[in-house]
Structure formats: structure tokens, C-alpha cells
Amino acid sequence: MADVVTVAVLAGTTREQRESIKAARYIADFANRLDGVEVIFVDPKAFNFPGDGNDPEGKDPHYTEIVAKADAFFIVTPEYNHSFPGSLKRMLDSELELYNHKPVAFAGASSGNWGGVRAVEALLTAVRETGLVALSWDVYFPHVQDIFTDDGTMKEEYTERYEKGLTKLFAELLTFARLFKQIR
Asked: Does the pTM of the predicted model rise above 0.90?
């Protein structure tokens, strides 16, 4: 298929009780239904990031391959204590050179009213430093535990809202990904 865009969907936490994983899987499933999109789902539990920073000993070779291959990213982060998880920061810090000039979209998730907006806002400074290009709007999952069933299926009454928002957001993400592929 010509002009395939590879999107890495990053789940933002290793926490055992993570509800945001349902939103991350939903977004990856949504993207898999789009023409011309290859999705790589990234669960930080599947990687090992020893140490801190961008030093060689702090990298996971499999994650390095994913970041090199990805044309765009979609980060799904829960909000913990008005910010994003340290496991997400550790993952993002490991590959500074490979993120440059690749677009990134965000989704926030929380058990409360804000839907992870403070986590996404906190991420912007760190993401800008990586060279990723943040899109201008996001998707939020407030009361995430009420949006999905226990098995991770989105409840019917929420589907139209999220399908509409993700359709618009992915159109922008894929447009930027194709544009930036030409200049990298």
C-alpha cells in the first residue's frame, strides 16, 4: 500500500490498575480501521528502560526500532497527581534523536472530571524538547472507568462522540505525518 503512515500508540503507564489502557487500545483499534495506517501499540510494560536519560545503557532496542519506524505518535496518558506518569517520561527520554520532526497527538484519561488535561499540559514541555511536533488539540476521557466496560469495550452511548473527535484528530495527525515524512 502506497503512502502508509506508521503510528505508534503509546500507553502512558505501567500501573496495574490502569484504566487508561482501555482508551489507548480503543485509539489503536480506531486507527487500525483507517486506510493507509499501520499501528504499533506500545505498552510500556513490555519494555525495559534501565537508568535515566538518552544514554545508550538507558535504551530498549525494541523501542528504538519502533521509534525509528514510526511516522507519528499518539500518546495516551493518565493523570496522576496533576501530571503524567514517570514511566512515560522515562520512555520518551530514551530516544531524543529519533523523534525529531514527527507529529504527536494526545489523549488524556482520568477517573475525575478533567480527563487528564493537566497531564497532557504537563507533557507539552517535555515533548517539545524531544523534537516531536504537538498537534493543537487533544481528546480526553474524563471518568474513564465509566466510558468502557470491564473488558475494554467502549459503551455505546460514548461511541459517536469519540469517533467524531478521533476522526478529526487522526486526519490532522496523518496530514502532518505525510508532510514531515517528505522533509525528514
From this structure: yes
